[in-house]
């Protein structure tokens, strides 16, 4: 039965060209669109670009934060990983399931995305698309406007909520049609067609696996995995060293209340965040040694003085003499 007009739909919008085109197409068919952006700090999307696209298109826009529940998906994906630690199919299922709940909350009739058949091997092959729709409780209610004519008709098409003849039949990784449509719709500022998800990066994946193995205290703590050099000093202690001024600021901002911060007395050089409770003098000396190794004092053949304090109380400033670290030891510690 056709619902009362206007028809409403929830569209996943990333800031990329495909999702923007999907919104444009569905909106032009007379559907009231509710754009959803899933915020994942080490993902492939751009919130600013998504917001700009939503504003230009004149649609509703909401940001949904991925959280600890999503980390459980990354830990144990039902459908496995891609090239590193990327659970692409399970990631889609998780996001689309939440989009389904949002759909119900705003009284929308279906969900749509900018996916293109065959564009990505882990989640955009025909069978994977079917599984994602089924497991996210959107079977029949998940429309893919850019490739709909190559897929079985969905409920929105069968019920006449959208005109199937005005949907597209794109397939593969080519971008020429999308580029032409971008010119037609005067879409100029969008993300390039790149993977971008840090879970596909083997270095980042090692850090995430280390966090899963030794533990993390909250989702916010995993955000810092994308910054700095990471060192596993012991099962209980980990150090993160900023590589530039911007990373130093970010690491301090995302430090846990139980962490310690290390810096050179003149504040010129890397910031180090020590994760762990009640560090021993040996742990503190090792952290000071890492500061020395990655600062302008790296060639000095004796220890230097480094300041440190607990995040929760900067007034408890203390000093420690660094322990000289060999290159072999640093290599063994680095994650």
Report on the structure:
With 335 residues, this protein is α/β, with parallel strands linked by helices. The protein has two domains: 8-184, 3-Layer(aba) Sandwich (Rossmann fold), CATH 3.40.50; 227-333, no CATH class. It has helices spanning 17-28, 47-57, 68-75, 88-106, 126-135, 155-158, 176-184, 202-214, 219-223, 245-253, 281-293, 327-333, and strands at 8-12, 32-39, 60-65, 110-112, 142-143, 229-234, 237-241, 260-263, 272-275, 305-310, 318-321. The protein has a six-stranded antiparallel beta sheet with strand order 6-7-9-8-10-11. Strands 3-2-1-4-5 form a five-stranded parallel beta sheet, with helices on both faces. β10 and β11 (318-321) form a beta hairpin. α1 (17-28) packs parallel to α2 and α4 crosses α5. The longest helix has 19 residues, at 88-106. The model has no long low-confidence stretch (mean pLDDT 94).
Keywords:
alpha/beta; Rossmann fold; 6-stranded antiparallel sheet; single chain; 335 residues; 5-stranded parallel sheet
Question: How would you briefly describe this protein structure?
Answer:
The chain has 335 residues and is of the alpha/beta class. Helix content is 36%, strand content 16%.
């Amino acid at each position: 039965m056709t619902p009362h007009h206007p028809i409403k739909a929830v569209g996943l919008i990333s800031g990329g060209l495909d999702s923007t085109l999907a919104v444009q197409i569905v909106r032009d068919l007379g559907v009231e669109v509710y754009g959803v952006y899933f915020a994942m700090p080490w993902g492939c999307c751009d919130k600013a670009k998504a917001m700009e696209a939503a504003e230009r298109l004149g649609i509703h826009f909401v940001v949904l934060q991925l959280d600890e529940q999503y980390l459980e998906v990354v830990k144990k994906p039902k459908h496995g990983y891609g090239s590193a630690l990327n659970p692409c199919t399970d990631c889609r299922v998780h996001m689309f399931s939440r989009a389904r709940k949002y759909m119900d909350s705003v009284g929308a009739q279906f969900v749509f995305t900018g996916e293109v058949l065959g564009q990505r091997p882990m989640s955009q092959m025909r069978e994977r698309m079917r599984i994602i729709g089924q497991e996210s409780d959107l079977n029949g209610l998940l429309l893919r406007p850019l490739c709909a004519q190559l897929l079985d008709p969905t409920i929105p098409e069968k019920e006449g909520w959208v005109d199937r003849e005005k949907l597209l039949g794109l397939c593969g990784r080519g971008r020429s049609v999308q580029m032409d449509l971008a010119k037609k719709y005067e879409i100029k500022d969008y993300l390039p067609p790149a993977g971008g998800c840090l879970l596909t990066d083997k270095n980042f994946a090692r850090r995430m696996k280390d966090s899963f193995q030794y533990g993390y205290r909250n989702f916010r703590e995993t955000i810092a995995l994308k910054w700095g050099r990471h060192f596993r000093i012991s099962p209980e202690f980990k150090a993160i060293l900023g590589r530039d001024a911007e990373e130093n600021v970010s690491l301090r901002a995302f430090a846990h209340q139980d962490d310690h911060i290390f810096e050179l007395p003149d504040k010129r050089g890397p910031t180090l965040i020590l994760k762990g409770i009640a560090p021993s003098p040996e742990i503190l000396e090792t952290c000071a040694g890492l500061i020395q190794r990655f600062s302008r004092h790296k060639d000095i053949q004796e220890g230097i003085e480094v300041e440190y304090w607990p995040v929760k109380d900067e007034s408890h400033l203390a000093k420690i003499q660094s322990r000289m670290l060999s290159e072999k030891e640093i290599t063994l510690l680095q994650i």
